[in-house]
Amino acid sequence: MLSSTKRITGVAAVALSLALAVSGCGKGSGDSNDSSSSGSKAQTITFIPKNLGNPYFDSSDAAGKKAVGEFGGTYSQVGPQDASPDAQAQYIDTEAQKHTNAIVVSANDPKALCDSLNQAKDAGTKVVTFDSDTDPSCRDIFVSPSNTEGIGKTQVDMIADQIGDAGEVAILSASANATNQNAWIDVMKKELANHPKIKLVETVYGDDDDQKSFDKTAALLQKHPNLKGIISPTTVGIAAAARYLSTSSSKGKVMLTGLGTPNLMRKYVKDGTVKEFALWNPEDLGYLAAYAAHALVSGDIKGDEGDKFKAGKLGDFTVGADKVVVLGDPFKFNASNIDKFNY
Ligand code: RAM
Question: What's this model's pTM, rounded to 2 decimal places?
């Protein structure tokens, strides 16, 4: 079905159909539902995204809600407006006090949430990190979108391809402590050593805030007049950078790639601002994370390496080393395929 899309190489192979999984759920921000089946006590599962109002988490958490409905649980979503760990910790504390059965959280910092998460675990709450991990000791399972090396290398491959493997590049990231972006940036830096004519001149942080990311893009272009490319490993950052570039004199001259959602990036691919970028299906990620939480709360798995569980329509998954479950392979999106995706 997706033969025209290119797969990221080196990514753990999990056979998944990542495309076209439109959930049909509404926006998830701050909402809750009770899909409890009559009889047995419904499992309470609370999603805590990095920040509310981020379309990526609107998609992932809406699909999480759908999954929770499938197994008759009670879904909630709470989270901060800004992508900050302190605010997330307060929400975690509240869920622990309520004895929520499982928290599904995308961490704004690898360590800052640990006290709260460990207290929640001690009180009997299962902890699933998804999208962005904490230190492994602070959670029961991490549901990772893909393989960190593959995600980092793919972004370097794309920018190298787009700028003729030479010139100045910059990174526009999310928040400075985000576990996932920092892990990908580490890989990118190592990978750039294989591209001696590309120079990384600066890494800046837009905090997964649209306006801040837009302003950081403008500042980068002003500060580095010879800039040839920007890598933005965040759906908020890449969309804001594309919006800036699309009406600037740098359109088509400064290349932009990274991780974006097809729905946010479609118009910038069509107007020639962006050639190619990548992502996984955030809906599948949230859906899988909900089922991982369900398997933990049900006692079907402990989160140990080798544990197996069923994730609804996505099929069977096995917990890997460091208690990590990998969704699968992301895709590269470009003008030839972007209309096939709706998330
Ligand atoms: C943003 C968030 C999220 C990341 C995506 C690619 O929406 O930072 O954590 O996985 O971008």
Answer: 0.90
Residue 146 near residue 327, CB atoms below 8 Å: yes
Residue with tokens 């998330």: 343
Instruction: Identify the CA nearest to 228 among candidates 254, 206, 208.
Output: 254
Q: What is the pLDDT of residues 271-289, one digit of tens each?
A: 999 999 999 999 999 999 9
Q: What angle do CA 243, 205, 50 make, to 5 degrees?
A: 90
Q: Is 50 in the pocket of ligand 1 (CB under 6 A)?
A: yes
CB-neighbour burial class of residue 189 (10 A; exposed 0-12, middle 13-18, buried 19+):
middle
Instruction: Set out the domains of the chain in order of their start, with CATH numbers.
Output: 5-145+281-328 (3.40.50.2300), 148-279 (3.40.50.2300)
The answer, yes or no, to whether any atom of ligand 1 lies below 6 A from the CB of 236, is: yes
DSSP string, 57-68: HHHHHHHHHHHH
Nearest residue by C-alpha to atom 10 in ligand 1: 131
Query: What is the SS3 assignment for 303?
Result: coil
